[in-house]
Amino acid sequence: MADSASNGAFVEFDRVQKSYDGETLVVKDLNLSLPRGEFLTMLGPSGSGKTTCLMMLAGFETATHGDIRLGGTSINNIPPHKRGIGMVFQNYALFPHMTIAENLSFPLEVRKMGKTEREEKIKRALDMVEMGAFGGRRPSQLSGGQQQRVALARALVFEPELVLMDEPLGALDKQLREKMQFEITNLAHNLGITTVYVTHDQTEALTMSDRVAVFDDGRIQQLDPPDTLYEAPQNSFVAQFIGENNTLEGTVKEINNGLALIQLDDGELIDAMPVHDSVKPGARTRVSIRPERVEYNKDRIQEGAHTLKAEVKEFIYMGDIFRTRLSVAGNDEFVIKTRNAPDVERLQPGQQIEIGWLPQDCRALDA
Amino acid sequence: MSALPPYATTGQRAWYYSFRVICGLIFFFLIAPIMVVIPLSFNAQDFFTFTKEMLSFDPEGYSLKHYRDFFGNPDWQDALWNSVKIAPAATLISVSLGTLAAIGLSQPHVPFRRAIMATMISPMIVPLIISAAGMYFFYSRMGLAGTYWGVVLAHAALGIPFVIITVTATLVGFDHSLTRAAASMGANPVTTFYRIQMPLILPGVISGALFAFITSFDEVVVVIFVGSAKQQTLPWQMFTGLREQISPTILAVATILVAISIALLTTVELLRRRSERLRGMSPS
User: Fold this and answer.
1) How many CB pairs under 8 A join A and B?
2) Where in chain B are the domains?
């Protein structure tokens, strides 16, 4: 899936820029290519340019600069209705004056398809999302989750090769959202459709995608499969944005044998992986450590781990895990997560403990 | 209106009752002049006042002679025919142009939207006599004065503001992601307009059409300036009737026009409610 050689790419953004007012760039120099069949998520905070990218791909916005290619041909000058791209909108955008079956029939009628063929495809699409019994209803008679399914069926009924989804699960409650995440991923993979999915929900991005493009400030900050993104963030923004993260600030002392020696601001010296290009002796850096990679039970701290003193500020019992907030090296917001097990000690606020982590779990990023 | 709560002060009580009186007075002044016309139109005499016989509900005092006059008199029949020819044509033009203008002006990227909107609405605000005089001179230069199409165009110009206002109001609630969705499904802009946008803004278009129709059907000032004897419409004939003949036939005509207006409004309102119910929107 990581193969994105430009000759095998199905969707390609080539040095794309977008500005609405001619001065500030909303999208700055975007390069992205995805192969056929990939499920790619554009993840980022609002205003990061992810929705603009999706709209440019759909044809509702024009790129100020650069080229967008679909199947090798530039689509800059092709109007949206000739691109043949399916789309699911945030508010579903079902036509309120048509029944569900008429909604699904619309893209087929536009393609001058015969009645029997239309009915067959509508039935298949509705069955696919388990909405077969609802063809005669109107959108206003359906619940949010059902409307969501219909919107999905409508985007797929004319069998597009590429489907775009703009935060389609944003309006659903948590339980339904998790169910739909699973269903959408399954459908996309079973049908072999290339999908570009936009969301600001990182859990959604991690659970659904083959690859995630993390957007910030009009640029892709990192483009990687979910596990790489979580375990090996390339910069502070990605480390902070994806999952929970602990940050310690300091200065790089020296780099030896692939490990950076960092002096934290309270004087403590720790080893970390030098990840970011800016990590050079004398430079400021932020060290990122995931909460679940920190141990406090003496017999669980592995050999070679770096240990240091910490004070317990807060201990929260969450059932499957314990979430403990500590004061570490001057940082009062240092969080660790420990799996609930019989041999794990339950801590008290004010308690002095020793924590430890392995240097390879500790990543020195840009300041 | 809710009932007076037990803790209401004297001031609130006074306002509670005076509010009702004021509302009643407003309705009275709006409706009384029209209601008076209806019984008078059945007057057996050629008077504009109630006769003794009418007030004592003597059947002798009532007759349909003014209605007979309206349907038998060629002057009135020509006028009716002219109105029936002019109003629908003017309505059609108002609706087409007004709807397109409203859709265009609802696009956020159109420059000077407010200024253009104000210009198009101006026929509603400028005193009619000024519009009429202006149209007279303008249409004379173009050879349109005194022609059927001249009157139709003049009435269309008067009707357009109503269509723009009603259609703009429905467009405020229109979800533009619907047109985007249609485009993503392969529908070209024309198909999208007729199959998606038009059905959804139809209630506004119909209300606008109704106002435009009634404007043309009731209009007297502009038609006197722009039209000629060949385009003498019903209101014009009524005006002439008042000035020259003082015939109570105009009371019969007025009654018929009121009846037509009420029927038209009721039909459209019922249709609108039905279509909104079908679409699952709440009737407002």
Assistant:
1) 77
2) 10-61, 75-247
Q: Which token pair is B205?
A: 């278009």
A62–B contact, CB cutoff 8 A: no
Per-residue pLDDT at A7? 56
Q: Do A140 and B183 touch (CB under 8 A)?
A: no
From the list B184, B199, B200, the residue facing A85 with the nearest CB is B184
Write the CB contacts of A160 (distance below 8 Å, at least 6 apart in sequence).
Answer: A84, A85, A86, A193
Residue A212 dihedral angles phi and psi, to the nearest 5°: -120, 130
The C-alpha atoms of residue B261 and residue B235 are separated, in whole angstroms, by 14
Search chain B and give the residue with CA nearest A104: B185
- Per-domain residue ranges of chain A: 6-236, 244-366
Set of chain B residues whose Cβ sits within 8 Å of the Cβ of A60: 180, 183
CATH class of A6-236: alpha beta
On whether the CB atoms of residues B135 and B226 are closer than 8 A, the answer is yes
Residue among A80, A96, A110 minimizing CB distance to B280: A96
Pick the CATH number of A244-366 from 3.30.40.10, 1.10.10.10, 2.40.50.100, 3.40.50.2020: 2.40.50.100
Report the CATH number of the B75-247 domain.
1.10.3720.10
Residues A189 and B193: their CA atoms lie apart, in Å, by 35
> Taking CA A336 as the corner, what is the angle to CA A330 and CA A338, rounded to the nearest 5 degrees?
155
What's the pLDDT tens digit per position in A135-185?
999 898 898 889 999 999 999 999 999 999 999 988 888 888 888 899 899
According to DSSP, residue A295 is labeled: B
The pTM (predicted TM-score) of the whole model is 0.78
8-state DSSP, B194: I
The band of A317, judged by pLDDT with boundaries at 50, 70 and 90, is very high
ipTM, two decimals:
0.81
Q: Which two tokens stand for residue A201?
A: 């929900």
Report the alpha-carbon distance of residue B233 to residue A365 in Å, rounded.
84
**Chain A residues touching B282 at Cβ < 8 A:** none
Alpha-carbon span A212 to A243, nearest angstrom: 14
The pLDDT value recorded for residue B2 is: 67
What is the predicted pLDDT for the residue at B278?
A: 62
